[in-house]
Amino acid sequence: AMSKLITSGVEEMGNSDQTVTGVCSTMNRLMLADSEGSKKVINPELVQAITSISLNENFVKGSKAASLLLYSMWKETNLQSFLKKQGMNKDQFVNDRTKEVNNELVENTSNNK
């Protein structure tokens, strides 16, 4: 259901930054909790939709959540080999945008200790 929501686009999520953020964050947690099950829903169309959201500056928090989702997908070793077999490559998941957002998160986490 989450993957269908993402591939349907931000319009289907009411063009709401909060909703986009929630959907991407929830999907991230679910994928990390069950990377094996995630393989059933991950496809190039989903990855393209997440990438589009991550680059959409109209959604300040949503684009960051989508960037973290992409970054996390590649960093999960089990998913990474699956993604490679699907013909996807690292640049789709680890790029300037996703690295920047991940670094912000790491810095904020270490500053809050």
Q: How does this structure look, described?
A:
- The chain is mainly α and 113 residues long.
- The chain has one domain.
- It is 71% helix and 0% strand.
- Helix 1 crosses helix 2 (17-33) and helix 4 (44-54) crosses helix 5.
- It comes from Nothobranchius pienaari.
- This is Plakophilin 1a.
- Keywords: Repeat.
- Residues 94-113 are annotated as: Disordered.
Quick structural overview:
The protein has 113 residues and is mainly alpha-helical.
**Beta strand count:** 0
Main beta sheet: strand number and arrangement? none
Q: What is the average per-residue confidence, as pLDDT, rounded to a whole number?
A: 91
End-to-end Cα distance = 36 Å
Share in helix? over 70%
The number of domains: 1
Strand content: under 5%
Shape: globular
Q: Topology as H/E string?
A: HHHHHHH
**Could you list the spans in which at least 5 consecutive residues all have pLDDT below 50?**
none
The class by helix and strand makeup works out as mainly alpha
Task: Please count the helical segments.
Answer: 7
The rounded Rg comes to: 13 Å
Key terms for this structure?
globular; mainly alpha
Question: What is the topological layout?
Answer:
Elements: H1 2-8, H2 17-33, H3 35-38, H4 44-54, H5 60-75, H6 77-85, H7 96-111
Helix pairs in contact: 1-2, 1-4, 2-5, 4-5, 5-7
Region (Disordered): 94-113
Keywords: Repeat
GO biological process, one term: cell-cell adhesion
